[in-house]
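Entry: ABC transporter permease
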Amino acid sequence: MRALRPLVLIGIGGLLYVLIELAFRGRSHWTMFCVGGLCFWLIGLINEVIPWEMPFWKQCIIGAVIVTAVEFLAGCIINLLLGWDVWDYSNMPFNVLGQICLPFSLLWILLSAVAIVLDDHLRYWIYGEEKPHYKLT
């Protein structure tokens, strides 16, 4: 059962990310299920690797760095190498190769906050892991 946890969490995170894209962008792509799910799972590992005593805002920044890194690597493969043009931040300020940009990296801080809390509670409710608690400062 423990071996399936990453797949379950990746599936939940991928589905939620696709739904977010559909709600705000009006479209998505199957690769976003994979990228969103991977990001959700990696963000969920923050409290598995780093003690709960780390302030929540620092966890959110780590989450945003994770998402930005995954987005850049995925974008280089999906958009630049394969040419699928799933997203393009070329018109956004402070972009790198059109694959990541500062405004979205800042948005990932907020989305990471939601992902951290949701992942922690899913692990608590589904798998009986430690009850979530957060240090704010």
